Amino acid sequence: MNAEAAASLAGVKDADRKHVFHSWSAQELIDPLAVAGAAGSYFWDYEGERYLDFSSALVYTNIGYQHPEVAAAIAEQAGKLCTVAPGFAVDVRSEAARLIAERTPGDLDKIFFTNAGAEAVENAVRMARLHTGRPKVLSAYRSYHGATSTAINLTGDARRFGNDTATAGVVHFWGPYLYRSPFHATTEAEECARALTHLEDTIVFEGPQSIAAIILETVGGAPGVLVPPAGYLAGVRELCDRFGIVFVLDEIMVGFGRTGTWFAADNWEVTPDLICFAKGVTSGYVPLGGVAISAAIAATFARRPYPGGLTYSGHVLACAAAVATINVMEEEGVVAQSARTGAELLGPGLRALAGRHPSVGEVRGLGTFWALELVRNRETREPLVPYNAAGADNAPMAQFAAACKKGGLWPLVAGNRLHVAPACNITPEDVAKGLEILDGALTAADAHVV
pLDDT by residue (tens digit) across 74-129? Predict the structure, then answer.
């Protein structure tokens, strides 16, 4: 590293330490990597070390870093109109909404724009409550819906604990997860049926007349790429129809090609009443989220003002990024590529790793969204680290992650799982490279198998 790069690195690190407050962290216990640049499926530091990003940042760079057409579209829009209040009709905002609505299932043709995913969840829940006149919302224990007030209470994982007010009108339930079935199921069909019975019982005992919405991640992201069994989403749709409950799908992580379809719901041909989206809609280049709204819910606010809004709703630079991202995905066949990558490369490759490494308990996923569940013992399925582990308890996963980084792969590690979520347009060569690095790094996890 030359003197100029060393000075830049020192300056970045010093300013970060003094002034940046990082999320989900004990500030004095972290040492963030200083990133100097990125392109495609890679980013690099000031010392020139390159990392193949198998996390897509936080599962959002669906077309990789620095796609030239999207970068150019943002610059072109900035040269014409950088911003305007959300109450005006603007060409690029209307075009972004049209392109999104064309790809949503069913009649979800109205788009309410937010700045990010958590705000999309907040507004979807508000719409459901106003539409039904009911207060409660049901969500799964194994879930993550965002860090704002309602969204974090809807979240089922441990990040809720420090934020749970117990006054948010949220009721949690168990969703399907055959590998660690709460229903003692032995097949996908049993897990599906028993999970739906449990959900119906929860609805009945909570009082259907008090429940505004059920919100689900179409494929559970942060909880471990939990792919629902065949028939589950359709069963939830039927329960919602029977009891007059709004069905909300959180597609913040899995929308826009991540699972090999534009929206993950397309894999099961299910249409919810509301879809929350963000992340991949702009490949993360400019923050943007939103809610896609069905005709019935939109009609509620046809002559009744919707009591919600944001200063930057449909920000024109973000909308320009969305238009360009969607057009690039269409022109380059990114959605179909994601499906092929999952079916032909990632799925078979990760299963082959499982065959060689005793620390891999299960492989699951689709498209460019997969998880390896790491265990100490395949027979007992004891997780490699305990739930919500930290410090010394988390050492086995920390060692595995360090081995990935040493090999030049940036992993997405959560709990006892590796989440594999590269860019949806990752090349076959980079998939092979990533799998080779994982093959070596998994020996660090194997060392803890008993």
Answer: 999 999 999 999 999 999 999 999 999 999 999 999 999 999 999 999 999 999 99
Per residue in 221-237, pLDDT tens? Answer: 999 999 999 999 999 99
Burial of 183 (0-12, 13-18, 19+ CB in 10 A): middle
Tally of helices (H runs) and strands (E runs) in the chain: 14, 16
Outline where 81-177 has alpha helix (H): 91-103, 117-132, 149-154
The band of 57, judged by pLDDT with boundaries at 50, 70 and 90, is very high
Closest CA to 281 of 156, 113, 147: 113
- Residues 89 and 245: beta-carbon distance below 8 Å: no
Residues near 13 by Cβ (< 8 Å), separated by ≥ 6?
Answer: 34
Q: Which of 216, 237, 235 lies closest to 227 in space, CA to CA?
A: 216
Give the number of other CB atoms < 10 A from CB of residue 117: 29
CB 263 within 8 A of CB 105: yes
CB atoms within 10 A of CB 234: 14
Nearest to 41 by CA among 375, 430, 416, 444: 430
H/E/C letters for each residue in 247-302? EEEECCCCCCCCCCCCCHHHHCCCCCCEEEECHHHCCCCCCCEEEEECHHHHHHCC
Pairwise CA distance, residues 319 & 107, whole Å: 21
Q: What pLDDT is attached to residue 166? A: 78
Q: Are 279 and 246 in contact (CB under 8 A)?
A: no
Q: Decide: helix, strand or coil at residue 84.
A: coil
Structural element, H or E, at residue 139: strand 136-140
Chain centre to alpha carbon of residue 133: 29
DSSP state of 304: S
CA distance linking residue 16 with residue 14, whole number of Å? 5
Q: What is the largest CA-CA distance in the chain?
A: 68
Report the C-alpha gap between 220 and 365 in whole angstroms.
10
Cβ count within 10 A of residue 72: 12
SS3 144: coil
**Res. 136: pLDDT tops 80:** yes
CB atoms within 10 A of CB 142: 21
- The answer to whether 52 touches 409, Cβ cutoff 8 Å, is yes
Residues 6+ apart with CB under 8 A from 443: 357, 403
Is the model's pTM score more than 0.85?
Answer: yes
Q: Which residues contact 58 (CB under 8 A, 6 or more apart)?
A: 279, 284, 412
